[in-house]
């Protein structure tokens, strides 16, 4: 429950508060929160204010409280908690009439009734919510977006994404990543579904299956087939398989292959050589992109981008925030 959280301040001398800087408070103290705290040191015009943690967390120099009221004077509140907690925190801030900005991890909600309620929140509250979808800020996403927009490639026929690793075997069986209703969809696949929806439009879930390999009855692997207007996307995400990253996009007249390290763009549908044999299109672009370095840096770039908008008193468009909240609606109904 949100009421069971406690607050602590950073150690004296660790942060120099500047009068005109915006105060940001963070809810949670897991790996994502620690990464955000690290990034904040390199972002101008913002200072870390409070960190909200559970009472039983042993963190030096904390200042405990049974309420999150201490955060209400923050210009920004960033929720770095498991997905099932996002909605309850945001709803609580709404009822407390918090008037400033919220950055939320995704998804904002994970049940249909929560989705319906949050969509009814007042406009002036919702338009100050930003959701952390950092994948579009990666070099990889920008390359994909560029080539997916080029008419010379023809229509997009098939998108195949595979991201797997064995992290589930290091996780406690109650870890949120494998205990949530949607398993890897909540933690990883959602980024790519969000990207594809913005690029290809609305989708229908044709096939969706979960499996358990690490712990009994825990959803550590997901297989998804999505039908867009003119194309299909197959997504396989696993926390319990050998490390592998593979992305393939087939167009009418070209293809893209990425293996987590090397991006290759093949152009033109030259299917026969002089001997009449099938041949691959020519590779016209090769780029080295380390997936995880690219991913981590995109988190920083996205956070900096959102904070810059907030510093300019910009608001999120209602269409944009509604789309971000609705991203997994097909899985809730």
Task: Give me a quick take on this structure.
This protein is an alpha/beta fold and 333 residues long. It has ten helices and 14 strands.
> What is the CATH level 1 assignment of the largest domain?
Alpha Beta
Q: Secondary-structure element sequence?
A: EEHEEHEHHEHEHHEEEEEEEHHH
CATH homologous superfamily name of the largest domain?
A: Dihydrodipicolinate Reductase, domain 2
Q: What overall geometry do the principal axes of the alpha carbons give?
A: globular
Measured as a percent range, the helix fraction is 25-40%
Mean pLDDT: 88
User: What would you call the structural class?
Assistant: alpha/beta
Distance between the termini: 25 Å
- Helix count, DSSP H or I runs of 4 or more residues: 10
CATH architecture of the largest domain: 2-Layer Sandwich
Q: What is the fold-level CATH name, i.e. the topology of the largest domain?
A: Dihydrodipicolinate Reductase, domain 2
Domain module tally? 2
| Rg over C-alpha atoms, rounded to the nearest angstrom | 22 Å
Strand order across the biggest sheet?
Answer: 8-9-10-7-11-12-13-14
Model regions low in confidence, pLDDT < 50 over at least 5 residues: 1-18
Strand fraction band?
Answer: 25-35%
Q: What about the largest sheet?
A: 8 strands, mixed
What does this structure look like?
- The protein has 333 residues and is α/β, with parallel strands linked by helices.
- The protein folds into two domains: 2-133 and 300-316, NAD(P)-binding Rossmann-like Domain (Rossmann fold), CATH 3.40.50; 136-291, Dihydrodipicolinate Reductase, domain 2.
- It has helices at residues 31-40, 83-95, 112-118, 123-126, 139-148, 176-179, 184-200, 291-311, 318-325, 329-332, and strands at 5-8, 22-27, 46-54, 76-79, 101-104, 129-131, 156-164, 204-211, 221-227, 232-238, 244-251, 254-258, 262-267, 282-288.
- Mean pLDDT is 88; it is low at 1-18.
